[in-house]
Amino acid sequence: MFFGILPLLAACGGGRSYHGSLQCAPYARKITGVELQGAAYSWWYQSRGKYYRTKRPEPGAILVFRKTSRLPYGHVSVVKKLQDSRTIIVDHANWEAQRIDHKAPIIDVSSRNDWSLVRVWWAPTGKIGIKRYATYGFIIPNKS
């Protein structure tokens, strides 16, 4: 029997995933209490009618990334703090393979400042990554 957070971070569906066993969705579920399952990108659709969804970040919100060839299961990050109108600070798992990142910046690079396109902190380089990632928006776990 396992104790602690590691068994909660096992891949969705019981198997290993694209980046191994530590996954963003189980991590986000553990720290927010949302009752959503499966691939991270599917959380946006699953949350409809169950949780409040918005294009504006707030502490505790879950940013849902779209599925892409680079993110075949999408991604989710949990907002810890708003730094300014274009920057949030998040905690998330498996952005860097098999690692939990705390206090990682994400920058809104969308033309309308609607958080539909972002760049994410990449710890190995110590700076914001150059790739842009499309997102759906934010799920607010404590509002419906």
From TrEMBL:
Alphabetized InterPro entries for the sequence: CHAP_dom (IPR007921), Papain-like_cys_pep_sf (IPR038765)
Peptidase C51 domain segment(s): 1-119
Name the record gives this protein: CHAP domain-containing protein
Organism per entry: Commensalibacter melissae
